Amino acid sequence: QNRPVPRNRPVIQKPMSDDPFDRLAGDLRSLREQDRFRHLVPRTVDGIFLTDAQGGRWVNFGSNDYLGIAAGGIAGGDASRGGMASSLVCGWTDAHDQLAHTIAELEQAESAVIFPTGFAACSGTVATLPRDGDLILSDELNHASLIDGCRLSRADRVIYPHRDVDFVEQTLRNRRRPSRDDESRHAWIVTDGVFSMDGHVAPLADLCDVAQRHGANLIVDEAHGTGVLGDQGRGVCEALGVKDRVKIRIGTLSKAIASQGGFVAAPRVVTDYLVNRCRPLIYSTSLAPGSVELARRGIETIRNEPQRRERLRDLTRLARSLLHAEVDDPIEATVPIVSLLVGEDRHAVDASSKLADAGFYVPAIRPPTVPDGAARLRVSITAAHDETMLRQLADAWQR
Questions:
Q1: Whether the predicted pLDDT of 8 surpasses 50
Q2: Contacts of 140 (CB under 8 A, 6+ apart)
Q3: Element (H, E) at 281
Q4: Which of 87, 113, 131, 371 lies 20 to 30 Å from 101, alpha-carbon distance?
Q5: Over 50: is that where the pLDDT of 4 sits?
């Protein structure tokens, strides 16, 4: 991620259009003119047959179910079979389509698209949307999936100090010049919403202001915010009041939603572009139907049982108090990731081992996941814990 930016690169200038996604729309128009535009078609798998909502029925010769295990129901029925093919071949079912609509409704976005993993959603989106000559500004503590997306992109990249909004603004200001030759070049600010190893919350309101001033696009990974933060569980963007300003939000189905997979919620032009250009989406087997169903149930729980979020917030505040890990920011105080900094790797491993002897699994996090000298224990709070467990953990930690 630390590749230096060439000094002779053309600088970034705010695009003339008010719509930051005109470039994507133009590329999609070209695909339609060449009869190369692709879209996801929901189909139902019935053994060796495919059917659709209009009553069409076909013998399926597009599946990768080479031994017929999924078609024959040997694995235990539809819910337990695999995806069988990529989403664009025949792996996109009615259930996938409905889940995408459900995610879009949860996120209050125009559209959503599903990936087989959250890692693929993050790395694929960041690798696909910025182009050669664009600029990516990436927080130094971003998740590995975002970092890999930056590395795969042909755009220039600058790694900015953690949550340093002034650095982001200064970089964008320094890279601009009034030249019409640069109108097609875009800037992208990429950040986690909640940083998974520290529990920090990104300064999204300030980043939105900077992005607006300099014509940049903001991409936020909501992996640890979806279902947890915000009045309706829509994540840190909702909690900070910037949901409508962050047009591209990436999420995972494997954390609070309790399934597997990932998604991108964004304007339709963005999701259409990903379907047509994003390699991890195009060339991966689709999410297994069982995971689709689990995700649907998880989102239903997020919608219908807000008391789970309230309980989690109460337990998180208590845990932070007991572990002497309080923070001033009211949103960050409800992030259920409590980082206990230890320092040296061996001390973190030793502390984790002693807590295990006391009956608590608290993982030791060491480089390269965190910087050298910043080894820690990472305590993840859930609504399934209770106060007694937290108090006992705090006592063991104090000892």
A1: no
A2: 159, 160, 161, 162
A3: helix 279-282
A4: 131
A5: no
